[in-house]
Prior knowledge:
heterodimer, A: 302 residues, mainly alpha, B: 282 residues, 13 helices
Amino acid sequence: MGVAGETAPQALRGPSWDGRFTVLILFLPPALLLFTLFVVLPIGEAAWYSAFNWNGFGKPTNWIGFDNYRFVLETRAFWLALRNNGLIIAVSLAIQLPLALTLALMLAERFRGAVALRMLFFMPYILAEIATGLIFSFVYDGDYGLVASIWRTFGAEPLHLLASTDTAMLAVLIVIVWKYFGFHMMLFIAALQGLDKSLIEAARIDGATRSQALRHVVIPLLYPTIRLSVFFAIVGSLQLFDLVMPLTRGGPADSSNTMVSFLYNNGISRMRVGYGSAIGVILFVICVTFAFTYKRWFMRDE
Amino acid sequence: MSSAETTRAPFDLAVLFKAAFLAVIAVFVLVPLLATLLGGFKSLGELRVNPFGWPTHWEWQNYADILFSARYWQLLRNSLIISTLTVTLTLIVASMAAFTFAHVRFFGSSMLLSYLTLGLLFPAATAVLPLFIRVRDLGLLDTYFGVALPQVAFSLAMSVLLLRRFFKDIPYELLEAALVDGCSYIKFFRYVTLPLSRPILATVGTITFVNSWNAYLLPLVMLNTDALYPWPLGIMIYQGEYSSEWHLILAFITLTILPTIILFLLAQKHIVAGLTAGAVKG
C-alpha cells in the first residue's frame, strides 16, 4: 500500500506484503478452522473410528479392522435401506422432475395467478421436513386421517398405510414428491426466464410448431439445468432422513429406512460409534463417488 | 413464449386441460396444509368423522392453549437463538473469507477455495458420530453453540461461493483507488464491500436461517436438555406425548410452521434468488 509513484495494480501485486498480510491472517482462519474442525476432520475420524468396536466413551482401543463394514454389509436392513434410497432416486427422476418441468413450462408464462401458483407449489419446500412428516402422518392416520376417511366413504375398512410393511415406503415416496417438486420447478422457471427468447422465436419463424420448438429448442437449452436438477435430486435422495423420522422412523420392520435413518437407528441412538461410522463412511463413499462421476460425465461443460 | 400466443380462442381445449392439471396439483399441495390448519380448530370427535371439511364448531381453545403455554414460546425462543447465532456467525466468517478470495491475491488462494467448496459434497449425516464426539470433547454438548458451530461450518461452502461471486463484481478500480488513497483492505471491506452487498447478504442470511430453523439431526444429536430444544425436536416430543390427540397436534404444527410461512412470504425473493444463484453454477 502507498508505494508512491507506481501504478496501483503493480502496487497490489508487488512483492511487499502491505495490507494483504493483515487480511490474510485475520479473515481466512475463522472459515478454514471451522470448516476443518467440524466438516473435514469428522469425516476422517469416521474412517478411523469405523475400525473399532467402541461405544464412544474413553479412547477407542478395541481394534477390529474392517469387521464393522462386514457387519453392516451382512445386515439385511442395510440393503433394504439402500434399496429404499434407490427407490427414492427412481421416483425423483421418473415422477418428480418431469412433473416439475411440466409445471415450470406452464408457469413460466405470464398469466393471472401464475405467480401465486408458483409460490403455492414452492411452499412445501420451505416447510421443515419434520413438520411435513407430521402433517402427513395425520393425512395417513388410519383413524383420523384423510386417507382413512376417503376409504370409509367407499365402505372399506380403513387401512393404516404407515403401519404396514407393504405400503409404508410408498406413503413416504408420495410425501417426497409433495415436498420437493416445487424446488425443481423453481430451478426450471429461473432457467426458462434466463433463456434467450430470440432462439425460440427464430425457430417459430422458421415454421416450427409450438411443440417442435419446445422439443428441439427449449428442452435442449434447459439441459444444463436438468442435469443440475438430477444431481440435486440424487444427492438429496441419498441423504434423506428428517422426513422419515416423523412418518415411520424407518419402520415397520425396517421397511422404510433410508441409509441415514439406518445410521441413526443403529449407530447414534445406541452409541455404536464404530458401527455407525462405518455406515457413515459407506454413505460418504457413495455420495462422493456419485458426485465426481456425475460431474465428469454429465457436467463437464459447466 | 411470444405474446402473440396469449390471445386465444375462448374455448381452447389445451387451455382447459392445462387449467385442470394445475388445479389438480394445487389441490394436492393445498389439502394437507388446509386440513392441518382447520383440524386444529376441531374437537377430536369431529376430526374423526370430518377430517376434510370446515369445522362445524370452531374450537379456538386448541390454539389458545398452545399460545398461552410456556412450552411453545420456549421452543420458538430456542430456535430463534440457534438460528440467529448460526446466521450471524455464517455471515461474518463467510464474508471475510469471500472477500479475501475475491480481492486478495496470494499463493494457494485457488487451492484453499477448492478445499472449502469440497464442503458442498459432504453430507452432514456421514460424519455426525465423530462430530458428536468432537463437540463433546470441546465441552459444547448441550449448548446452543454446539449446534450452531457445526451448522456454520456446513453452510460455509455455499455461502463463501455466493458471496465471493458477488464481491468480485464490485469494480476493482474502486478498491485500487481506495488503497492508493491510504484506505486499508479492512476498512474497504467494512465501509464499501459490506454496504454494497446487502442483497446477497440478505439472500445468504435467509437461506442459512431457513436451514437452521428447520434442522433436526444436529440438534437431536447435540442437545439432551428439553429446555434447549428447538421446535423440530420439541414438536416430535409433543407428538409423542399427545400420540392420538390429533386436534392438539395439528394446532401445534400450525403454530410452529406459521413463522416459517411468514418468513417465506416476507423474504421469498431472497430465498428463490439464493436457490437459483447457488444452482446455476457450483
